[in-house]
Task: structure prediction
Amino acid sequence: MNTLVLIRHGQSQWNLDNRFTGWTDVALTPQGESDATKAGAALKGIAFDLAFTSRLKRANNTLANVLQSAGCYNIPTEYDSALNERHYGDLQGLNKAETADKYGADQVKLWRRSYDTRPPNGESMADCERRTLPFFKQYILPFVEQGKNVIIAAHGNSLRPIMKYLEDLSIEVAGSMEIGLCTPYVYTFDGKKMVKKEIREVPGIVSFADPTKK
Result:
């Protein structure tokens, strides 16, 4: 048995400000740093062989804190823009509530949760999947199937296609699900077969990027 862990970055400054972030390289808040440390403590006992992350520092710093807290040092790590967050185009930097007031809540929901709808000059979820999932299948999944313990620290919309694939989710379910900040999604494999999924609870962390959620 071996393990694949997927973890979304901790709270960034623009999560706190309720802004569309996308490819903007925004740092973690102190809360995000602390939450990553707590998540790592919840993963102690897993001896990671490899790590993968995006080229955005909120994911990079989350991974570094998680691995240090988990007691895993000098782990080979790959950084690739295929794991970057979905590009939100003209929405990047805009406050989500103000954008809903301007364009309407239904339009913003369509931009955020429809699998095929692109925000202006940005990527749809489907666009994000077209770069993320092939990278996962070609460069990450083979290590998992060889019995390696692997961790991916990335973003809600770059982890979504991987979860959709692993769990055979519909587009509707994948598009609407909330992926918690700094919450480890732990998949156990037996050879090439995924046999168990666990969402590991981390007490005291900020789980939701949307401040309207509790």
Notes: The first helix runs from residue 13 to 16. The chain has a mean pLDDT of 95. Helices lie at 13-16, 30-42, 57-70, 96-103, 105-113, 125-145, 156-167, 171-176. DSSP finds eight helices and six strands in the chain.
